Amino acid sequence: KHFTDPNYEILGAVDAVFYQNLSQNKAFATWIKRSAHAHRVAGYRSVTLSLKPMGVAPGDLTDAQMDQVADLADEFSFGELRVSHEQNLILADVKQSDLFALWQKAKEIGLATPNIGLINDIVCCPGGDFCSLANAKSLPIADSIQQRFENLDYQHDIGELDLNISGCMNSCGHHHVAHIGILGVDKGGSEWYQISIGGHSGRALDEKGRTRPTALGDVIGPSFAAVEVPDVIERLVQTYLENRYEDERFVDTVDRLGLEPFKANVYHDKGHKRAAAHV
Fold first, then answer.
1. Helices (H), strands (E): how many in the chain?
2. Nearest C-alpha neighbor of 182 from the set 150, 147, 213, 228
3. What is the model's pTM?
């Protein structure tokens, strides 16, 4: 009772112009698939603006972009803007008829990357670049992974995948509940990275539409030097792509197969395994 709904208009669930744009513009349709979400009021959607374009630290905005986002909120979402745990921004109440115009304006200011929920939608703490508690840098690791998976078609083929990075055991990036988690660790004064897989935060649904219980990821084995991390992530993804069922997500394949196929692909080189740091 302390909150009131905005002044929603009475709209129909079907908007002819919206569906025309959807059918005629592939880029717009791709953005809608990843960034627009169902709304309880007919004729409205909630929209996530991605703060994960290439070459930018996850979650970062410039001062100019912040002013522009405020304008978008005023124009399209009753002046309200929300910040998600995933380090993105949400316009909660957008009219379906306004989605095409919103997409065009978001694209102009670099906030329409259609990667929400995909491997490059990385959650990352500041790490050793900015935090005195960190054991290792996080932002360069995020950048190297984003570069490895830069191709959007490849990201969409991989499908839903949570990848979180923490620079120390304080776990500000919540790596332990990610499908793939990366933890920075100190090994003899050097920065190494421990990889876990199979975590999830309880927000996802299982194959029967039930909410999955929260689970912590399992560490796959010895840790890796920073330069090795992109290769490790790609081997984990390759193992998933080679073994997944149709429409099966990464975390579901891990649940079904267990760690061994993933470990076998990552640690196939015995020389590499001997060189890795045991943490």
1. 10, 10
2. 228
3. 0.90
Q: Are 113 and 59 in contact (CB under 8 A)?
A: no
Strand order in the sheet with 82-83: 36-37, 44-49, 89-95, 82-83
Q: Quick one: tokens of 248? A: 């099966």
Structure tokens at 168: 């120390």
Q: Which of 141, 32, 123 is nearest to 85 (CA)?
A: 123
CA pair distance 229, 175, nearest whole angstrom? 15
- Using DSSP bridges, classify how beta strands 190-197 and 82-83 pair: parallel, antiparallel or unpaired: unpaired
174 in Cβ contact with 209 (< 8 Å): no
Beta strand 163-166 with 123-124 is parallel
Report pLDDT digits (tens) over 177-211. 999 999 999 998 899 999 999 998 866 566 566 66
Element containing residue 186 per DSSP (H, E):
strand 180-187
CA atoms within 13 A on the CB side of 111: 26
- Measured torsion, CA atoms of residues 168, 178, 174, 148, in degrees rounded to the nearest 10: 60
Instruction: In whole angstroms, give the CA distance from residue 130 to residue 119.
Output: 24
Q: Do 193 and 138 contact (CB within 8 A), yes or no?
A: no
